[in-house]
Amino acid sequence: MSDWPTALRVNAFVRAVENAGGSATVLARGDRDSGVILLLAIDRDGTARLLERERDLDGRTRIVRRKPDLVGEAALTPYWQDRRQRDPDLWVVEAIVAAAEPLAAETLWAD
Q: Pick from 106, 51, 101, 111: which is nearest to 76 by CA?
């Protein structure tokens, strides 16, 4: 999947979330082919967190949580909106589903 355009990865993730009984919404569309994806994962209890894949200097990838000190969707929204203003290629996807991380690992961030 590593050679898939970002738009196809996002589409696959949205379908995976829906197949798992959740809902997913694209809040901002970035570069169709190579945009970075920021995931706003919301658990059924309302807990929200922002996740993103990053590479270290050795090329290894890991999923990191952005702004772990902020709790809730309302607190995280200004952060991603600010990032989006600085990086119009950024995709922002919201998912309300149990176990968003495994679904994202299989679709959004699969190598």
A: 51
What's the number of CA atoms in the CB half-sphere (13 Å) around residue 85? 5
Amino acid at position 5, single letter: P
Asked whether the beta carbons of 24 and 41 are under 8 A apart, the reply is: no
Structure tokens at 102: 């495994």
pLDDT along the chain (111 residues), means of 10: 84 95 96 94 89 87 88 91 96 94 88 73
Strand segments, DSSP code E, in the chain are: 23-28, 37-42, 48-55, 61-66, 91-96
- Minimal CA–CA distance to 17: which of 111, 109, 102? 102
Predicted model pTM: 0.90
